[in-house]
UniProtKB/TrEMBL annotation:
Gene3D superfamilies: 6.10.140.2220, Ankyrin repeat-containing domain (1.25.40.20). PANTHER family: ANKYRIN REPEAT AND MYND DOMAIN-CONTAINING PROTEIN 2. This is MYND-type domain-containing protein. ANK repeats lie at residues 1-31, 33-65. One of its GO terms (cellular component) is cilium. Residues 274-311 form the MYND-type domain. The lineage of its organism: Eukaryota, Metazoa, Chordata, Craniata, Vertebrata. It comes from the Eukaryota. Its main location: other. It is found in: Cell projection, Cilium.
């Protein structure tokens, strides 16, 4: 093992950074069994080191003596977060190709100032459309119809490139197509409304009256998959077979199926993901119903307009399973919900008592 391999396997990020700065070969595979530093990073379970190796030019298709890639090695030992990082890596150099005029063109297809914000969206491992729209809102350069048109066109070209390249990458092609669909939806709302994507977020989050299920979001994701232009790909056919027989509102959702296919993550653990943006590791509950979790106060505020319709009934269901003295403690909180107020100050970490098993923590 080279020093870089040792540092990656032992999770020493500072040492990895130092060695790479001094010219360590990130793709060296002279190990006895053909392992690379990226493989050892995946085995360690350290996503920051895995990303560091990828940024340094680590090749994801190299295989060891038993024919396994770095992503396959990480999956074999259960390090699925590292698998997600590897599967979603996209070199910024490939994107910056479009920031330079090509052929007879006098202007680049993608203005250089948009390369950074767009690359951030491409690299996201959270494919929830709400999260992607929030990423767009965070970048002032993207909240502009002209900029979104440019980005959408580049995503179409990247999707086509992934399919037509010698080693066709169906997963990356589908991801580029899906992200392009979300950007196009943002463009449509910006052109027709003046609220800077707030109405789009509300549409994606609005829950069905009967059970709070976000129908618009489910239909939107299904429509994105249906519009994938390469019908002959195995990935598209597998997605259709998984989603088509499922009625809207039942499991698995289109988002869960698409995320598992594109990121390599295992099935979602209930309660571990923010109900608003899908961010992993959500650790705050609505203090009234205790039934939904969020990653932040901002996400709870964003979701309250639709959750308040169901919060009362969820609270009643939770109350039936508790002792009578506990019910009295909730009376004041019921008044808050009845008045339509968002109980932001009442957010708390998930309980480990009657509310279900404790959530994993770092």
């Amino acid at each position: 093992m080279t020093p870089l391999m040792h540092a990656a396997y032992k999770g020493k990020a500072d040492m990895c950074r130092l060695l790479l700065q001094h010219g360590a070969d990130v793709n060296c595979n002279q190990h006895e069994y053909g392992y690379t530093a990226l493989m050892f990073a995946g085995l360690s379970g350290k996503t920051d080191i895995t990303s560091m190796m990828l940024d340094a030019g680590a090749e994801i298709d190299l295989v060891n003596s038993v024919g396994r890639t770095a992503a396959q090695m990480a999956a074999f030992v259960g390090q699925h977060d590292c698998v997600t990082v590897i599967n979603n890596f996209f070199s910024r150099a490939r994107l910056e190709y479009y920031t330079r005029p090509q052929g007879v063109d006098t202007e680049p297809m993608l203005p250089p100032r948009l390369a950074g914000p767009l690359h951030k969206i491409i690299m996201t491992t959270n494919l929830n459309p709400v999260k992607i729209v929030l990423l767009v809102k965070e970048e002032p350069a993207l909240v502009d119809p002209w900029a979104l048109q440019k980005c959408s066109r580049v995503m179409e070209l990247l999707c086509e490139q992934c399919v037509q390249q010698q080693d066709m990458n169906e997963v990356l092609a589908m991801k580029m197509h899906y992200l392009g669909c979300v950007l196009n939806k943002c463009l449509s709302f910006l052109q027709n409304r003046e609220d800077k994507l707030d109405s789009l977020l509300r549409s994606l989050l609005r829950g069905r009256d009967s059970d709070g299920f976000p129908q618009y979001q489910e239909k939107f994701i299904r429509d994105c998959i249906r519009k994938f232009p390469y019908c002959e790909t195995n990935l598209l056919q597998e997605l259709v077979r998984s989603i088509a027989p499922v009625e809207i509102g039942n499991d698995p959702t289109a988002f869960a199926v698409l995320s598992q296919a594109l990121t390599g993550q295992m099935a979602f653990v209930e309660g571990d993901y923010c109900v608003t943006c899908g961010e992993k590791g959500a650790d705050k509950r609505c203090s009234l119903c205790k039934a939904v979790v969020y990653c932040s106060l901002a996400c709870q505020k964003l979701h309250w307009f639709t959750h308040k319709k169901m919060c009362g009934s969820m609270q009643d269901q939770d109350a039936k399973a508790q002792d009578t003295p506990k019910l009295k403690e909730l009376k004041a909180e019921e008044k808050v919900a009845a008045a339509g107020g968002c109980p932001l100050e009442l957010l708390s970490r998930p309980s480990t008592s009657s509310e279900g098993p404790p959530r994993p923590r770092d």
